Amino acid sequence: MIYAKSDPVETLREHTDRVMDNYYKIKSTYGEKIQNIVGDENFWDMLEIACFYHDFGKIYTPFQNEIRKRLKMELLETDFKNDIPHGYLSPAFLNYKDICSKYGKDKYAILVQVIGFHHERDREIEDLNKFQKVLQQDLMKNIDKLNSEFGIKLNKISIKYISYINQLVRVKEGDRDYKKYVMLKGLLHRIDHSASAHANVEIEASSSIADKTMEYITRKKNSKLRSPQNFVLDNRDKNIVMIASTGMGKTESALIWIGGEKAFFTLPVRVSINAIYKRIFDEIEFKEVGLLHSTSFDFLYTEGYNDSFEKYEISRQLSYPLSLSTIDQLFTFPFKFKGYEKLYATLAYSKVVIDEIQAYSPKIAAVILKGLEMITRMGGRFMIMTATLPRIFKEYLKQHGIDFEFACFYSDIKRHRISIREARLDEEIGLIIEKAKENKVLVIVNTVKKAVELYSTIINAKLVKEGNIDVNLLHSLFIQRDRFEKESRIKNYDQNGIWITTQIVEASLDIDYDVLFTELSTLDSLFQRMGRCYRKREYILEEPNIYIYYNDSSGIGNVYDKEIFEISLMKIKEYDGCLLDEKQKVDMVDEIYSRETLRGTNYLKEFDDALKFLDAVFDYDLDKRDAQRQLRDIANVKVIPIEEYERNMDLIEDYLNEKDLSKKHEKLLEIKQLTMDVSFYRVKDYLVPTRINGIFIVGLKYDDKVGLYIGERISNVI
After folding, report:
1. pTM of the full predicted structure?
2. Collapsing DSSP states into helix, strand and coil, what is residue 433?
3. Same domain, 380 and 448
4. Structure letter (DSSP) for residue 168
5. Fewer CB atoms inside 10 Å of the end CB: C or N, the chain?
6. What is the mean pLDDT of the chain?
């Protein structure tokens, strides 16, 4: 018996059969599209060889002994140690003469590297004599086992491949066969990983997402396609950059543009992704949709979706025809980390949607644009859709020769009359309270600290107590249980009152309030905030419904770029008292985020420095974790406030003592409802030594109305 895996136990033949099934599946589903990308008639033959031979090195006796040890079996006799990766051994079984005569020597070298590096290792072959002994004495001794297991007739091994198992001679960007190498290696990764997970490498859709979406619009909504949707319908085979006002159906437009092709739909915020998942799965009734972010399983399980673990696992394998994802799950490939070909190859035969690109930091936006450039060069297509678009993003694509169709669609509805206030926000609490007597009032500030201070001031105001006015607070420092409850309430709020929030409501929550009081941020952020007020209604009054405060705005210089804040202030002051239309908003953002206006700002420096770094990054220099860290602005940790920890000790003890893995996981999900993600630097001095499954305990005061009190240590805890 030749073993491939120990948990679950699987023979080499069983695993290889699964791999070959997935090879045929991906070929039958997307074969023609991939063939057109690569442009080589021998591509599928080469991938079949790579799939069949990729794990033959596992016959190495020390590797078999590692598995037998785990299975408590008698070990096989050997003089060697398990210090050579099996991938480095598998190419020994390739028929050098046959492959060279059919495909050429250069293709043999590619196959060797595709197989040799299908598990990325940092090890080099240091002792060539020992390596040859392993090939000749161990692998050759076991060759009959392979023949018997697979019904083949191997009679020798080759050592000619050894020189290609070298990091210094690996195929890199710019090499002649780079595209072919990326597709071969990337698809082998996909096929192998799916087989190991006992998952189908590609799930075929029962119907087109475009057809389901158009049916949803025409039948369920009893509506017609709008201008943006007709535009994408006419340009399905092209890259698209589209600006469209709130309420014009950007999401439906993207789904129609996707057609029946494999696609990835990205958004900046997990809450938004979860909401669109529910919409696609439950309302549009397209069931072959995946969810890909760091808490996707928690969401699927908590929301009660059937087979949530299976859905989660299939999503992780990139197998669904449509996947909804955060950027950090997909756009690591521009860093060319070890194993990046898996993502790159998949996106090369897919369509990619980037929603609200202006919401990302300049560094992450640079990574996205570089990624879109790379995808396009490989054969993939993209759609950028947004309410406002920085000019430098569009200029980057043009300068790098990326063709795209550009269109703007503005709503005729004027929704916002603005007032620029010289007073500080906390000096006009009386005005906020007065408006809340007859309106749903939204207050957005730039930092959690400012939100908590304002909430404390307002709830203690005499006018609030006398008028019995409802006041609520929402920011990022609530545990999941309380945050979900607050997010549900703010979305379904149907009474007059006040909600004080931070910028987390800008893109993540579909809410519609009557009056907005906000600190000034940068204009792109400000206009997102304004979209939470009079979302789809026309405003006809002379008094303002948007109050903007710029004096003593919090978070300037750390949350928001100071220079862009000042430019934004200068620009927005020109419209004081005006009823803004959507085109004016787009034009202001376009002008501010031009190279001319941004010259000398930290924003432009960060954007350009990120692009320079990506252009200079050395292939295979990083690992995947390094790449993902580059895509996260803040190093977050998951914490439970000490009071919640102590209140739920029974649950935690049950979790720690539970032996049934399924029940243990259910209890872990309950524990995660008590957690929040917070930047490490804010809580590092308050962490308790106790940890649960990577979750920290933080010794700070917490309550469900105010959240985590940063700096207010619980006495006698640490």
Report:
1. 0.90
2. helix
3. no
4. G
5. N
6. 92
